[in-house]
Amino acid sequence: MKVKCVVDDRENLTAGKIYEVTECKTVLANKIMYRIKDDAGGEYLYDKENFEIVEG
Questions:
Q1: In the chain, is it the N or the C terminus that has fewer CB atoms within a 10 Å radius of its CB?
Q2: Measured in Å, how far apart are the chain's first and last C-alpha atoms?
């Protein structure tokens, strides 16, 4: 799945940039997180609310 970042207050994410989701995970009371390879090259979990789906 591909998603577009919709926030600009993250150090390792760029607003408007498309990212590939490598995993979707449900944590803490049904909160959905996306595992994404960020701008720093690491793969981390980010809140799905920071993204909109563009493909998949």
A1: C
A2: 5
Please tell me the pTM assigned to this model: 0.85
Q: Using one digit for the tens of pLDDT, what is the confidence trace for 8-48? A: 766 889 999 999 999 998 888 789 999 999 999 999 999 99
For the domain covering 2-55, report its CATH number: 2.30.30
The length of the chain, given as a count of residues: 56
The full DSSP string for 6-44 is: --S--TT--TT-EEEEEEEEEETTTEEEEEEE-TTS-EE
Domain ranges of the chain: 2-55
Sign of torsion, CA 14 41 3 11?
negative
